[in-house]
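To the wet lab folks,

You asked to see what we're planning to order before we commit. Fair enough. Below is the target structure as tokens, and below that is the sequence we designed to fit it. If anything looks off to you, flag it before the synthesis order goes out.
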């Protein structure tokens, strides 16, 4: 099955060379190119590609900034001339990382990895300031979390908790607790209510991550989450929680 690709790079010659190399791979169809992050966001929304070849360092927004603005994320293969970004690219768990100028053998390796991925696991991203491709994210979808210079791809089912911090939300997964510029109300609209539950104005918890439920003050409940966090369920939400969990 042919996979649709978009090349996003501010260097025209780099785009042309990569397009030429991809021409030797009949399983890939380059459906668009973009010279910067904003163009890339528009093209991705328009073409819905299976994979993007993404430069990291571009004028204005970086490749990581682009990912943080997407709602639905295709597979990502980073292409860059800068060795210093290699570690960061692997940290965010991209499908692959290609150093420019791209070598045909390394490109073939990356495309082999692409063939091995399952289409049902195409990821999605949390942030969506432009309202593109909105929809409920499944627990097996991935989200892109960017906090300053650190970035991660994280499966939703690995996130145990969201916590409101002013205009931000803190995301709890593994040992990390990065902040994203997103309100809990906006997150709640995107999350599957069968998996994520709004316990109060301050928290959304992953129901799969609850280890213990105890009665609490004024008819509320106290949840103990994997990771050791203890989260209060307000009295009003406790009624709904009990109905959902058949307590």
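Sequence we intend to order:
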């Amino acid at each position: 099955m042919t996979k649709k690709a978009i090349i996003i790079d501010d260097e025209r010659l780099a785009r042309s060379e990569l397009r030429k190399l991809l021409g030797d791979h009949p399983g890939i169809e380059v459906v668009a190119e973009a010279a910067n992050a904003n163009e890339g966001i528009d093209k991705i929304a328009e073409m819905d590609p299976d994979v993007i070849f993404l430069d990291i360092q571009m004028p204005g927004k970086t490749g990581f900034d682009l990912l943080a603005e997407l709602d639905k994320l295709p597979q990502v293969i980073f292409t860059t001339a800068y060795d210093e970004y290699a570690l960061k690219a692997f940290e965010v768990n991209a499908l692959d990382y290609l150093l420019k100028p791209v070598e045909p053998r390394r490109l073939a390796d990356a495309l082999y990895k692409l063939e091995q991925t399952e289409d049902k696991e195409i990821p999605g991203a949390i942030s969506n300031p432009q309202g593109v491709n909105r929809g409920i994210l499944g627990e097996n979808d991935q989200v892109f979390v960017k906090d300053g210079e650190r970035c991660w791809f994280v499966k939703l089912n690995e996130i145990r908790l969201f916590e409101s911090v002013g205009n931000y939300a803190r995301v709890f997964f593994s040992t990390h607790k990065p902040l994203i510029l997103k309100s809990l109300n906006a997150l709640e609209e995107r999350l599957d209510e069968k998996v994520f539950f709004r316990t109060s104005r301050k928290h959304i918890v992953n129901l799969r991550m609850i280890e213990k439920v105890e009665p609490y003050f004024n008819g509320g409940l106290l949840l103990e989450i994997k990771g050791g966090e203890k989260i209060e369920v307000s009295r009003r939400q406790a009624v709904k929680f009990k109905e959902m969990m058949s307590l």
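Structural context that might help your review: The radius of gyration is 20 Å. Confidence is low (pLDDT under 50) at residues 119-123, 127-133.

Thanks,
Computational group
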